[in-house]
């Protein structure tokens, strides 16, 4: 097992260098150099660990990594962490205190400063060596407070609690005023459209299959929403291609001069719901308890099943030889349930096919019905929905055997199950 893990890590780094070229190779060299520079602190870490062990009978001190580089972790993972703490879930049966160190970079400074208020954060140079030493010596379960399954809502706490992040009334007023200048009417509902494309990490990143290629397949849905009176805002720090659509109720915020970190947070907190394909913005939306419709969702095993208001339609996996879409059982049997990297697609002899414009539109209509309490599982697909849930409950496990789908609360749209009976 250990040797296989090492081989996978080496293969992963090799693929990253191959795809990213000299720039990625340089970054990895810098990371190794940083470890060498920090050697004195690794010696100091032994002393700190001894203190932790001596203090344990009195007070347990735990160390955690504050993942500030990715918005998904910064928002949803730590929202779940705080809510579990509030509900006294998974906490030690003794007095404890948690210290964190953040990563080198911060994805959203404004959101970070809102989030860090609930955490004790120490310099990375001091705590990182101690953190690594604890893991190396096998004390992870005792002295590390990282969530075992990151941003998976293991105990369904987000549906039981309110957001721990609050934004000021002043920011709400200023943001609304700016958006009104772009066409937003007072009391008009906002729908965010967040679609990751290859500007996210560059065209040669190792997860290009997660990027949307056929962006114009969303036009039919945008047109429907704007006619219904919603104000559709396309979000994103960077986007490559403009959607070929113009309307007074549509605004491409991602390519506008008003995009700021504060506005990003405001939109996530105030939208009616978000249409996304699985990227950093939608976990922030979920941290504010706003619903998400996942389209072109790539990882079948990572299906967001824990929250009542969410809905999901998946990318299609197609066999290269037969040209046929493959079902859940074959996806599982061929080791595709947790597909992560582009090179795996080639190895498994498949290609991905994005959702059609009708699949996206029909799912959006059902999402609106769901939020208006008009949606229910149709008799035509009731058996399919049960089979879908049973498949996940019986088969889908993480590497440690954990099942994140024991109590599926989110839904698959009726239209998607009807169109894709091959899945089951």
Task: Report a brief summary of the structure.
The chain is an alpha/beta fold and 424 residues long.
Task: Produce the secondary structure layout.
Blueprint (H helix, E strand, L loop, with lengths): L1 H19 L1 H16 L1 H17 L4 E7 L4 H16 L9 E7 L6 H7 L8 H13 L3 H4 L25 H12 L9 E5 L24 H9 L3 E4 L15 E3 L8 H10 L2 E4 L4 H7 L4 E6 L13 E4 L1 E4 L8 H6 L8 H6 L2 E4 L3 H15 L10 H14 L18 H6 L5
Parallel strand pairs: 1-2, 3-4, 3-6, 4-5, 6-7, 7-8
Antiparallel strand pairs: 9-10
**What percent of residues adopt helix (DSSP H or I)?**
40-55%
Helical/strand content category: alpha/beta
CATH topology of the largest domain, by name, is Rossmann fold
Beta-sheet strand percentage? 5-15%
Question: What's the number of structural domains?
Answer: 2
CATH architecture grouping of the largest domain: 3-Layer(aba) Sandwich
Strand order of the largest sheet: 5-4-3-6-7-8
Low-pLDDT residue spans: none
CATH class of the largest domain: Alpha Beta
Order of helices and strands: HHHEHEHHHHEHEEHEHEEEHHEHHH
State the helix count: 16
Distance between the termini: 32 Å
CATH superfamily of the largest domain: Glycogen Phosphorylase B
Shape: globular
Describe the overall structure:
The chain is α/β, with parallel strands linked by helices and 424 residues long. Helices cover 42% and strands 11% of the residues. It has two domains: 16-143, no CATH class; 169-423, Glycogen Phosphorylase B (Rossmann fold). The chain has 16 helices and ten strands. Helix 3 crosses helix 6. The radius of gyration is 23 Å and the shape is globular.
